[in-house]
Amino acid sequence: MGTDLSMSIASGVALIEMHRPPANYFDEALIGAIADAASELDDDPGCRVIVLAAEGRHFCAGADFGGGDFAGDRVAASERLYRRAAQLFEVRTPMIAAVHGAAVGGGLGLACAVDFRVAEPGSRFVANFARLGFHQGFGLSVTLPELVGRQVATDLLLTGRRIGGEEAARVGLADRLVEPGRVRQAALELAREIAAAAPLAVRSIRATLRAGLAERVRQALEHELLEQAGLWGTADSAEGIAASLQRRPPVFTGR
Predict the structure, then answer these.
(1) Does residue 53 have a pLDDT over 80?
(2) Residue 219: pLDDT above 90?
(3) Phi and psi (nearest 5°) for 15?
(4) pTM to 2 decimal places
(5) How far apart are CA 109 and CA 219, in angstroms?
(6) Sheet holding 102-104, edge to edge
(7) Which residues contact 175 (CB under 8 A, 6 or more apart)?
(8) What is the pLDDT of residue 199?
(9) CA distance 73 to 116
(10) Is 185:15 a contact under the CB 8 Å cutoff?
(11) Mean pLDDT lowest for which of 52-61, 66-75, 159-168, 186-195?
């Protein structure tokens, strides 16, 4: 599993933890490792629920456009990443994300790929794609509207604004809002509550509720990548990414 990811199981609950602090930027290798670990747990009778958590200040800040795979050929890197990300939607075991700190961009996509999100008031959810000058990815075209409705999803995607845990809970993006410092504990408590239910029934109910989701996400990923590929070649995208790396407001020109 490597040093970037760890996994443990206790009382029917598996804890998968990302170890790329402080921001837990992802790439194909990390998303693939998460997908592989979750898929293997599908066949482990000792696992009934999975909690996805992270070490460091933030749950996940998405892709690192200042280095790694995404500093080069972003289209090729994203194509590989999305192929692995699609596997997350085929996992049969219920999954819960313990979102402390920020879930930004693709990190928000990762959080929305699972069944539940546990947050605290200081958690931050950011669909910042328009502020970076390109189209959303990681299947958010499907998952975000399903969670919060089309209007709220449109608001979050077009403005790229940040919302905290309390607003996330109000709009349906966070399923549990807990006291500061209790996110992981609360996620594990929810997982144990689900694990206490009949496991065959839980998987059956979940499969019905998520029927067709993986197929819709795969189609969305193809479209998202096409849109991203076109927009990454624009001056606005170059400006948006540069401004983000330099921690300054972007100045877009529509080119």
Answers:
(1) yes
(2) yes
(3) -110, 115
(4) 0.96
(5) 15
(6) 102-104, 124-126, 162-164
(7) 116, 117, 118, 169
(8) 97
(9) 33
(10) no
(11) 66-75
What amino acid occupies position 82?
Y
| Non-local CB neighbours of 77 within 8 Å, separated by 6+ positions | 27, 28, 63, 69, 70
| Alpha carbons 6 and 26: distance in angstroms, whole number | 15
The domain limits of the chain are 1-180+199-255
In whole angstroms, give the CA distance from residue 240 to residue 227. 16
Cis upstream peptide for 199 (omega within 30°): no
**CB distance 133 to 236 below 8 Å:** yes
Report which DSSP code applies to 60: B
Residues near 177 by beta carbon (within 8 Å), at least 6 away in sequence: 119, 120, 121, 165, 166, 168, 169
| Per-residue pLDDT, 69 | 80
Strand spans (E) along the chain: 5-10, 13-18, 49-54, 95-99, 102-104, 116-119, 124-126, 162-164, 176-177
- Tracing tokens 């330099």 back to the chain, one arrives at 246
CATH class of 1-180+199-255: alpha beta
